[in-house]
Amino acid sequence: MINSQNIINQFADHCTACGCCVEVCPIVGDTALKDAAPESIMEEVLTLFNDGTIGPLARTRIYSCLFCNACLSACPEALNPGLTFGTSKGLLQQLGDIPPKGVATIMSFGKTLLDGAIPSFRKRLKSQEKLITSFTNDKPKPVKTVLFASCFGLIEGSVLHTALKLLERIDPDVCILGGYDFCCGEFQFMAGQPDAAQQQFDKMISGLNALAPEQVVMFCPTCKMTFDHHQPATEWSWSFITDFVARHLDQLGPFQKIDKIVTIHDPCHFVRGVEPATDSPRKILEAIPGIQVIEMEKSGDDALCCGAYAITGTGKPGYQFRNRRLAQAKGTGADILSLYCPGCHMTLGSEGANISLQVESILSLLGKSLGIA
Predict the structure, then answer these.
(1) Which DSSP string do the residues of 282-331 spell out, in sequence order?
(2) Among 26, 65, 289, 311, which lies 20 to 30 A Cα-Cα from 188?
(3) CA dihedral angle for residue 171, residue 172, residue 176, residue 177, rounded to 10 degrees
(4) Is 145 helix (H, G, I), strand (E, B) or coil?
(5) How many helical (H) and strand (E) elements, i.e. helices and strands, does the chain have?
(6) H/E element, 175
């Protein structure tokens, strides 16, 4: 269980305000912090934690945080600044701070998107029983494999549907759990409601337990990282979808040729999460004949974030950051910017057409190679 006050207290007790996390933060240069001394920024953060005094440097540091985990390896005290800053949004609100519009409205925005996405996604399904967004009083039928859709997964419905078809080749009885009631708590966390995020996570775990699965496959790397942070005691295992699919490639083929040059955007919560990984998305692309991978600047465990958190918290600096990532992809000369995070897909995909760059999920490419996308 993650306790928000414990996270802040631990940081306040052990942070030395050395500024190392600021020095490696990839978005600081896009914000009002760019000319401030890293030590001064962190001293102001500690003043907030210890005395409840809100300073402009601390506020900007917290709301501009990408939660990309780039600072994890830089902290000499082995603290988690990103998790702490995300939790600190709640402290700011408790002290009377008015959050940025993107933070204040993320909950209602997400619900509006899901209210439109779920009916649209259901129309894609041959069996309505495949998607579970709530439980009736009847005890649900146990399933071996659950595809946990995440909120953003249902919004990116075409990719989720392809993912379902892929998993049905491995387990025909796989079902999807998702929707507003079964979010992992990410919306609440982004909104500065860490305690509500914990309650939502617990509710989601109860929903998964009710299905009595053997394995849960995460469609979103942020959900996977959230699970790894909480380490819930379950009788089922969990894994990220590219890891799961890569382990079962021999059950999916034969693969048709796709002659495309692809560059990969790696989501920070996968490559720098609690259990970092980079191999499985590349193994999937290697299995598709004709695909040529060209790595862009800042890839793998050094990948640059898509900018989603900063867009919510700061607006313009976040958009500038996103555009820099798109420019890196465009600069490779690849035909396709390929990614495997629904949140990154929403953030980067909407702008791809504006720079004549095709943005497509690795799972969609695999589905096309199998004739099922």
Answers:
(1) HHHHHTSTTEEE-PPSS-GGGPPP--HHHHHHHSHHHHHHHHHHHHHHHH
(2) 26
(3) -60
(4) strand
(5) 19, 9
(6) strand 175-177
pLDDT at 181: 86
Per-residue confidence (pLDDT) for residue 135, from 0 to 100: 82
> Across the 373 residues of the chain, what is the mean pLDDT of every consecutive 10-residue run?
84 97 96 97 98 97 96 95 95 96 92 91 90 82 93 89 96 94 90 92 94 96 94 95 97 95 96 92 98 95 94 95 96 96 93 92 97 86
3-state secondary structure 94-132: HCCCCCCHHHHCHHHHHHHHHHHHHHHHHCCCCCHHHEE
How far is it, in rounded angstroms, from Cα 241 to Cα 153? 12
Same topology for domains 104-247 and 252-370, yes or no?
A: yes
User: Residue ranges of the domains in the chain?
Assistant: 4-98, 104-247, 252-370
Distance between first and last Cα of the chain: 38
Determine the distance from the C-alpha atom of residue 319 to the mean position of all C-alpha atoms in its chain, rounded to a whole number. Answer: 17
Residue tagged 């005094």 (tokens): 53
- DSSP class of residue 139 equals P
What's residue 222's pLDDT?
94
Query: Would you state the pLDDT for residue 329?
Result: 96
- CATH fold for domain 252-370: Rossmann fold (3.40.50)
**CATH no. for 104-247:** 3.40.50
Question: Given this model, what pLDDT does residue 137 score?
Answer: 67
